[in-house]
Amino acid sequence: MNLSLSGVYRPHSLPKLLTYSSFSTLCRPFCYSALSSSPTCVKPQVPLFLRPPIYSTKLCDLKKWHDWGKGVALSIGSTFVQSDDGPDSSMLCRELKWLMEDAVVDHSLGVEDDDRVKMRIGIEGLYCLWKQRVQERRPFQYVVGCEHWRDLVLSVQEGVLIPRPETELVVDFVADVVSENEDLRSGVWADLGTGSGALAIGIGRVLGSERGRVIATDLSPVAVSVATYNVQRYCLQDKIDLREGSWFEPLKDMEGKLAGLVSNPPYIPSKDISGLQAEVGRHEPRVALDGGIDGMQALLHLCDGAVLMMKPGGFLAFETNGEQQSRALVDYMKNHRSGSFCNLEIRADFAGIQRFVIGFHQ
Amino acid sequence: MACLLRKSLRTKALFLHKLVGNSSDSHQTLASSSWFWCRQLSLSLPHKTTTCFASNSIPSPSFSNALLQIRFWASEAAATELSTSDGLTVQRILANNWTILDEHDGDWRSHATAIAQSIHLIKRRLQWEKLKVRLDMLSFQLGKEDLWDDPMLAGKLSREHGSLLGKMKEVNALEQELLEHIDMIKLAREENDADLESESLKVLLNMRRNAKEKELEALLAGEHDSCSCYIEVQAGAGGTESMDWAAMVMQMYKSWAQRRGYKVTVMDEMPGEIAGIKRATIKVDGEFAFGYAKAEIGVHRLVRISPFDSNKRRHTSFAAVAVIPILGDGSTHVQINESDLRIERFRAGGAGGQHVNTTESAVRIVHIPTGVTATCQNERSQHQNKASAMAVLQSRLDQLEMARQAQLNAKHTQSLTDITWGSQIRSYVLHPYRMVKDLRTNYEVSDPDSVLEGDLDSFILSYLSASLDKDDDA
Ligand SMILES: C[S@@+](CC[C@H](N)C(=O)[O-])C[C@H]1O[C@@H](n2cnc3c(N)ncnc32)[C@H](O)[C@@H]1O
Questions:
Q1: DSSP letters along B64-84, please?
Q2: Ligand 1 in contact with A198 (CB < 6 A)?
Q3: Which of the listed residues B170, B191, B219 is the one where a domain comes to its end?
Q4: Using the beta-carbon criterion (under 8 Å), do A276 and B355 form an inter-chain contact?
Q5: A123 and A179, same domain (yes or no)
Q6: Chain A within 8 Å of B339 (Cβ-Cβ)?
Q7: Whose CA is nearest to atom 27 of ligand 1?
Q8: Burial level of B182, CB count in 10 A (0-12/13-18/19+)?
């Protein structure tokens, strides 16, 4: 089949040059080239479900694609599960359904084979995307350009970590503490290493219409640009301030002023990176995952900084790699930073892993 | 236009005629009409009305007081038996045993009889007599001074009162309209007005259709009938065979719900290893979803040549169906304590967090005190899966509470685990002959395919009417 994709990935008003270079790498969205050539201004990609429905296909051709896609998914069986705990057939089938949901304007679905269906991508583009998903193990969220996280739909693309379900709980912790504490509710919060902006946006919405705001930082320009896009989509420009830079560096003006601090910094020990599931290891940015020798490098750095940056009574929450890191972090905060923190607690995620450290600045 | 005007004039004339027709003295009119009410009261509720009857027949100082009371009561319970100017009532229409002809070649008698039958059926389905007693009791309670000491209860009582009164008024209006149009036709005949006669006939025909629809609605008069619901299907013993059957049953409900215009969402689905489902839950959104679907609770049995048996033998498979109402915001829900819940990631394993990319974020919520659980896996975020699972859990706990509070209702609120595999409600036979038969009503059809494609309404309606009749006998 003809895999020429001209037109498929071309987001509007994309500079001609960028478009061209991306299509020359066949089937790749432009962000790869964006990463390698690191342009000063990274243009965020529009998620599939938000693209204009300018394509149309016969219903029978869409069905044919779907049957093909299902066949591909079923042929995988549990191969990926065995090789690296990747997705199994049933999960792939569900993703196929979601891909179709995102690609097709649902009320345009006809009944006759010859009925035309309105789509946000050409049928060839769909073949290509599903090949990328299964053959190259490109994460489903990059394929459709978004991730459903809490009650949000966040745009994601190569170069930005796909927010994880575990991390949703951090927003619940924050919601709990701000619901009973006016100072925290109206204070300034920081989300360090914000990636897609997930935590910042979740917290921004929890703070509601009061004075409280969020400053989110990230070292990666792609992350900052995607987060900016997401913040705008939820109309939180006035509440969330995005700053590019390393951890606390862009926050020099906030010394001793932060009412809250959250972070899901890279925490995977360097030696584990090579064994990661293909979707993660081959496609997600290493800078978002690699936490140094023991994975604790960023976490410890953030604790040190918190002492300086936070207000007395401020709340903090970190995500970690699990029980071992959580315990080590609490130890560090109690022993090396004694007197700085109180009410430290380790909290589990829904899989029962001791995932989070929460507490207050003294 | 001219025609309409004439009609309204005539209606007015008719009304006046009726008002003064029985009595030349305007004082008497009042008394006679209240007397009339009383007489009707005594018909419907003999024990209650003797005193009214007495106080009214002999005017006395307490007369006006009693009159007020009667009128209040009468307007509340609308016990007035309506009649035409020459004394025809719904009961008498029925007693005449006029033949009901096809809609199109019906004369007024045929239409009137059809409408009267519908009214009769609606009343029966609404359990008219019980309804009146209940309404009376509610009025009494609502009149109490300490009513608002318990605002929750007061709200509940007045909501029920409003809803029952509404139903009663609707039926009375139907009855009144019928009789007025009969009067109209008679008048038209007296005056040889063919226009008016045919116009009134048309109205009667419309009423006839309308009443037929109301008949259906009256089947669904249960407290939760108007709610949306969850439908759950579970495969019986017998492995792949039954799991395939369970999937067919679930598909039948999905198609049925879509035909009725309900929104269908798969909440949770446990696929079988080879084919079909072990169990699944769908949410059916829309008015009266529960009212209809509750007729499907029980075990469904299939007889066919197995597609999974290389020897082509005949197999019998079972699937159990449970239906849970989703109570509206107006009803009282069971309070759930956050601390009573255990929330688990479904199919969790491995390191999680940054190590893993997965689109699987289903959660299972366990309500520790009762052991009731709920799972949702159809949503794209864990947060939403949790919210949906919470909604399922809430409905399950509400259902449990309902069953506890009202043993009467329990038959409609069984959970899957309560349904014993013995309680078969319907049999689907694909071989050696083809038939679907409801074992409760004996209703049967010879085209299993259409039933499996969701054509279930006739089964549901025949069951619903049969079960009302049974209630009546009890
Ligand atoms: C595990 S991701 C978390 C992203 C997002 N907060 C979430 O939970 O989905 C870690 C993020 O930290 C960012 N990061 C890594 N090193 C950083 C640094 N020195 N300063 C700021 N951000 C950094 C990465 O770019 C990445 O976006």
A1: HHHHHHHHHHHHHH--PPP--
A2: yes
A3: B219
A4: yes
A5: no
A6: no
A7: A195
A8: buried
Q: How far apart are CA A362 and CA B203, in angstroms?
A: 81
Interchain CB contacts (distance < 8 Å): A and B: 98
Name B193's Cβ contacts closer than 8 Å, sequence gap at least 6. B187
Condensed to tens digits (0 to 9), the pLDDT of residues B206-223 reads 999 888 878 877 888 788
CATH at residue B449: 3.30.70.1660
From B219, B244, B265, the end of a domain falls on: B219
Residue B165 structural domain: 2-219
What whole-number distance in Å separates Cα of residue A14 and Cα of residue A20? 10
Q: What is the pLDDT of residues B110-145, one digit of tens each?
A: 899 989 988 988 888 788 888 899 999 999 999 888
pLDDT of residue B84: 85
Q: DSSP assignment of B280-312, as one string? A: EEEEEESTTHHHHHGGG-EEEEEEEE-TT-TT-
**Residue in B357, B359, B384 nearest the CB of A94:** B359
Alpha-carbon dihedral sign for residues B55, B57, B62, B68: positive
- List the domain range (segments joined by +) for residue A318: 149-153+160-361
Cβ–Cβ contact B348 with A under 8 A: yes
Q: What is the rounded end-to-end Cα distance, in angstroms, of chain B?
A: 53
0.90 cut: is pTM over it? Answer: no
d(CA B423, CA B439) in angstroms, rounded, equals: 10
In a domain, A3, yes or no: no
Report which residue type is found at A243: R
Q: Please give the Cα distance from A268 to B301 (Å, whole number).
A: 53
- Check residue B32 and give its pLDDT: 31
Distance of residue B348 Cα from the nearest chain A Cα, in angstroms: 6
Q: What ipTM was assigned to the predicted interfaces of this complex?
A: 0.88
Residue with tokens 């995500």: A319
CA neighbor of A298 nearest in space, from A218, A189, A361, A198: A218
| Residue count of chain A | 362
